[in-house]
Recover the amino acids of this structure.
């Protein structure tokens, strides 16, 4: 009590002056932040768009153009030029001749430190995951973040088997195994020293493929640009 | 922090303006002499690139907040000075965050959460409190540039050693093409302490030599 009284007696500045100082500094700072936000908004949106595009081309080898598809309520895929944020979207990649190379799918899950957002490519004709890229992660630098760079780990996702069984579900669960013990094409060789992060990636892909792969496989012809000619080539009925 | 800021202040009070710059780089180096801002020093110095980017981002915040604090030093009542400094520092950190995102998505990705941690870097608060609040904007600018350069230098010293020993590379260029047994521990948090201890030892031995 006495201490508190002492402080209030000793204080020479009136509270209105303090309030004025804090409010004006706050206003100036808010203005500065708002100006920076406005000034960088377009550039950041553009860069993120470019980064997403280059990530899509990275996870779908051979692709050079892309198209955004939204999932409709009847589990069909339709081209959505400007999809709203709530829609589930996938990105179809095409090569220079316009033939369909596969679908890039965004997925996320819990990593060792916070959320990991990834993008992976699925080729419905080969029934394989053909590429993988980390969009955002807070994994430990030097350890967990090797999921982004380690070439042996990334090689797991160049041809990861996600083929469907007769019932239309995934034949095999995607599993994370100890480094160097990968035997089957649906297993993922974990990174030594980054076991939790490796397993997190495996779980994210396992969970996401179980949801998306059957849907996309069933609707795989709707992604073809020249659907008539390509349909002739494939000649199969789902 | 009080002890150290007193020393810094008295040593910087009567010197010429060029010395305001030089002292941060060497004599009062924020990391090797004042041992301030240890959180980012230990956390982000695992590669040379991260260390440099983090050092430059911190320097930007330091320069801008020192300038603003020095300009407003007669306007901010002393009772609310710490709150005001934090407000100013946090604003510039947010601006830096947007700025880095606008420069490169890749760079923003590699620095991750460390950018927002600049807010709690006590180096910046200590410069605002110990120097900028008592000196002209011009002197504060020089002080911030010097301290920032010293911080970048120190972070680079740690980052380079840790990346070379812990990963066999420098700026992601392999230095030992013939194969190299990586000291994984050096890029782990523990390696930060080891490297910092070695540099502090080196600096203190050099200081002792000079004195005798």
């Amino acid at each position: 009590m006495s201490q508190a009284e002492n402080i209030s007696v000793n204080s020479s500045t009136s509270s209105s002056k303090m309030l004025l100082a804090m409010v004006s500094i706050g206003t100036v700072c808010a203005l500065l932040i708002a100006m920076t936000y406005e000034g960088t908004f377009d550039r950041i949106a553009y860069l993120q768009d470019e980064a997403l595009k280059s990530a899509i081309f990275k996870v779908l080898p051979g692709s050079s153009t892309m198209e955004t598809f939204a999932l409709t309520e009847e589990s069909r895929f339709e081209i959505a030029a400007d999809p709203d944020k709530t829609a589930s979207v996938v990105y179809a990649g095409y090569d220079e001749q316009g033939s369909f190379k596969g679908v890039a799918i965004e997925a996320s899950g819990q990593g060792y430190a916070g959320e990991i957002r990834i993008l992976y490519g699925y080729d419905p004709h080969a029934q394989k995951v053909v590429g993988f890229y980390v969009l955002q992660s807070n994994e430990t630098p030097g350890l967990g973040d090797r999921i982004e760079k380690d070439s042996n780990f990334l090689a797991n996702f160049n041809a990861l088997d996600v083929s469907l069984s007769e019932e239309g579900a995934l034949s095999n669960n995607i599993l994370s195994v100890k480094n160097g013990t990968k035997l089957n094409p649906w297993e993922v060789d974990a990174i030594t020293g980054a076991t939790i992060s490796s397993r997190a990636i495996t779980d994210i892909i396992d969970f996401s493929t179980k949801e998306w792969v059957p849907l996309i496989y069933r609707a795989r012809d709707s992604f073809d640009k020249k659907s008539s000619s390509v349909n002739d080539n494939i000649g199969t009925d789902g | 922090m009080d002890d150290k800021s007193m020393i810094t202040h008295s040593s910087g009070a009567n010197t010429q303006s060029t010395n305001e710059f030089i002292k941060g780089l060497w004599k009062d180096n924020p990391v090797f002499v004042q041992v301030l801002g240890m959180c980012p020093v230990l956390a982000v110095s695992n590669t040379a690139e991260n260390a440099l980017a983090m050092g430059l981002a911190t320097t930007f915040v330091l320069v801008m907040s020192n300038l603003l604090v020095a300009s407003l030093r007669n306007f901010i009542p002393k009772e609310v000075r710490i709150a005001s400094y934090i407000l100013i520092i946090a604003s510039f950190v947010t601006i830096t965050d947007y700025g880095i995102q606008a420069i490169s998505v890749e760079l923003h990705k590699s620095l991750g959460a460390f950018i927002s941690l600049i807010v709690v870097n006590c180096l910046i608060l200590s410069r605002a409190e110990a120097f900028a609040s008592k000196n002209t904007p011009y002197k504060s600018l020089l002080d911030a540039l010097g301290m920032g350069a010293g911080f970048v230098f120190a972070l680079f010293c740690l980052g380079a050693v840790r990346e070379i020993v812990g990963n066999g590379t420098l700026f992601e260029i392999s230095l030992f093409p013939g194969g190299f047994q990586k000291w994984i521990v050096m890029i782990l948090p523990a390696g930060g302490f080891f490297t910092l201890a070695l540099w502090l030892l080196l600096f203190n031995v050099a200081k002792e030599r000079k004195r005798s």
